[in-house]
Amino acid sequence: MTTYLYSHPVCTDHNPGHGHPERPDRLRAIFAALDDEYFSLLHREQAPKANLATIERVHNADYLEILQSSIPQEGLIHLDPDTVLSPASYEAALRAAGAAVAAVDAVVSGAAGNAFCAVRPPGHHATPNHAMGFCLLNNVAIAARHAQAKHGLEKVAIIDFDVHHGNGTQDVVERDASLFYGSSHQWPAYPGTGAESESGVGNIVNVALQPGSGSADFRRAYTQHILPAVDSFAPDLLIISAGFDAHALDPLAQVLLTEDDYAWITTELMGLAHRHCAGRVVSSLEGGYDLQALTASVVEHVKALMAA
Fold this sequence. Notes:
The protein is α/β, with parallel strands linked by helices. An eight-stranded parallel sheet has the order 2-1-5-10-9-6-7-8, with helices on both faces. Strands 3-4 form a two-stranded antiparallel sheet. Helices cover 40% and strands 15% of the residues.
């Protein structure tokens, strides 16, 4: 199976300012790691811009108009203390969403077996009408809705192993039984959502991990809760919110994973995808803020996609 890699240079031009953890060097480090000869078989594509009609399946038009009009000609604009716009931010967000949409097209058509989108800004905190938590557009939710609207897929599962709960994705999913959302995340932590009682219409599984949790707790969350639920849901497509900030070296949380855990969960998810949806998986980068941990984890994640 061919693994596609989507990105675009403008995703490194989105710059929230000196000292911000969601910095352009994150992608530069990933690109350097994926330039290794081992990844020569990756099929590399530049991310297109997502069009507004596709984005508006998730985000309302008023929000998009406000977002676009807020982009500065120079300097920075803070939407909140964490979420910052620079001159390239709007195009970067369109390319990040467009990467996930194009990846769905490639995977569903059979051109790609699976895909990884190395993009920023991330997306899983963005709600239909609100930017937050470094996120402007909800890339994975847009991709899921696109898969249903364009390709007629009935059921799409989104799995989120970022250390922070994807409140924006949950907002999109929670009243729609054709979508599934499973998340492992630290609790308590930003953004304060993701209690295990938040189950939508039976289509959401949240597993909270205490600070100091490690590999055993993480793997138990999946083997006992999330993976069986995905298996029962039997998706036509599986989308991954691939955040790597639960790594032990990450400065923003206290879950003590290693890159081996990301190899493991990717392999487990690919097994489910082969069982239910011909291996169709689209993965999109979310968090991960220590460059050494991020690159090591992405390397293992992409290796597992390529090996599936």
